[in-house]
Structure formats: structure tokens, C-alpha cells
Amino acid sequence: MGDHARTITFIGGGNMAQALIGGLIARGAVPRSLRVVEPNEATRALLIERFGVDARADAAGALAGAAAVVLSVKPQVLREVALGLAAEVGDALVISIAAGIRARDIARWIGSDRVVRTMPNTPALIGEGITGLAALPACTTADQGLADELLGAVGRTVWVDDESKLDAVTAISGSGPAYVFLFIEALEAAGVRMGLGATEARALAIQTFAGGAQLAARSDDSPAVLREKVTSKGGTTFAALTTMRDKAVPESIIAGALAAAARSAELGDEFGRD
């Protein structure tokens, strides 16, 4: 980070907070400049041992002088947590990584319009994440830069110009790793059914997916063109893809993502009520 002693306070010390903390320290942040409010004693001990951060059981004094407060708690408790922090936020930028909860609701509860809502995903745990971000109008360019710096510590960032688009981000990248895992599971199961050992089938499925994704990322060709290059009419790939289309696999993936986006919007309605 640009200012290695800048104080960042995390409310909640779970897996995503730990990923962010690890990423920030790897980029030069001073561990003691990172505060974590975490009521679970075992998790606090882990945070102190693993990262050397300032981990404490409650928020009293934890927000004093903080440049940013990262809300990394479950959506269903965010309202209660935000209301409890309202008197202490001060000039800190508020960054939420809670799924579904809208920035304007967080702003109302916490008493600050400088709120950035984000949607990271689980590959952030290994520094390979991608995060969608949206800022309320009161956020300055510097605020957005700070949020981008924090979430960029665990992967790529993508800003959207309308917060409602974060429902689509949630559906594609937030929930997306589960779709990838489902596909890997299915390929692995197919390999075992055809006589491969479970270890062999898993290695083949995972590396094929990882390699295919990297090829798509590095190629100037679209995924559709890359698919066509692998598919010879009447060949093995053609047989597989024809069957998958007959089974409506592409349409099912699209329908699933649309359902995830709809549920994200519902969560905002459900947990955003006072």
C-alpha cells in the first residue's frame, strides 16, 4: 500500500478478511496497522499468530483514526453491526464485502454516505480473485482508489457504474466458482465411470479446466472461436458438445446465473429493511 502505516479496521476476521489481510501484508502493509474486530477467541488467536495484526474482541476504539473500515460479516448481521459502529466511523471510508446488502442501506445504518460496496469471490483466498465494486456518489476519487487498492490485494478489480449491476457480478463471479467446481465434479465423475482412477480423473479435470481458462485469458480469440478450433465435425469433441446442447447445458448455465442475480436482489430487499 502507498502509506504502509495507514490504519485499516476489519469488522469480522473470517476467510475473506484473512485473504485481504494476507494480500495487504504481502504488498507492504505494516501488520500492526491492520486492526480486526473478531469476537471468536480462536479466530483472534489465529489472526495474531498468522499475521501479527491487532485483533480484539470488540469495536471499542478500533475505528479511531482508521482510513477505512471493512465490513466483512455475514449479510444477516450487517444491519446490527453497522448500527453499532455508527458513532465511531468518523472520517473512515466504509467498504462492504457482504453479499446482497445495498450501499444506501449501509449508509443509512452507519451514518456515512462514503460507502463502497464490493463483491469479491473465493479465489481471492489464493490471490486469484476478481472483485466487482460500486461506490455511492459521495465517495471521492481517493476513496475509490483506496477501495481498489484494498480489494486489488487479492486479485483483479472491476468497477460498475450502477450498484444494481453488482447483482450480475454476484451471479457471474461471486457464485461462479461453484459452477466451475460443479463442472470439475462432473468431469471427474465421467472419468471414473469410464475406468480412470479417482486421482487420475481429478487431475485431468482440474488441469484441463485451469489450462482452458488460461488459454482463454491469454488468447486474442473469443471463447467461441477457441471452442470451434477444438471441434472437428464428426469428432469426439463434436459428439460431446452436441450431447451437451441436446441436454440444454448452455441454457441451464445461463438460467442458473439469472437465478443467482435474482436472489442477490432479493437479499438486498430482505436484509435492507429496517
Description of the molecule:
By secondary structure, this protein is of the alpha/beta class. The chain is 52% helix and 13% strand. 35% of the residues are buried. The protein is built from eleven helices and eight strands. Helix 3 packs parallel to helix 4, helix 6 packs across helix 11 (249-271) and helix 7 (176-193) crosses helix 8. Strands 3-2-1-4-5-6-7-8 form an eight-stranded mixed sheet, with helices on both faces.
Element layout with pairings:
Layout lengths: L7 E4 L3 H12 L7 E4 L3 H11 L2 E3 L11 E4 L3 H11 L7 E4 L6 H8 L4 E5 L9 E7 L5 H11 L3 E5 L6 H9 L1 H18 L4 H21 L4 H8 L5 H11 L2 H23 L3
Parallel strand pairs: 1-2, 1-4, 2-3, 4-5, 5-6, 7-8
Antiparallel strand pairs: 6-7
Helix pairs in contact: 3-4, 6-11, 7-8
Function: Catalyzes the reduction of 1-pyrroline-5-carboxylate (PCA) to L-proline.
Catalytic activity: L-proline + NAD(+) = (S)-1-pyrroline-5-carboxylate + NADH + 2 H(+); L-proline + NADP(+) = (S)-1-pyrroline-5-carboxylate + NADPH + 2 H(+)
Subcellular location: Cytoplasm
Short description, anyone?
It catalyses: L-proline + NAD(+) = (S)-1-pyrroline-5-carboxylate + NADH + 2 H(+); L-proline + NADP(+) = (S)-1-pyrroline-5-carboxylate + NADPH + 2 H(+). With 274 residues, this protein is an alpha/beta fold.
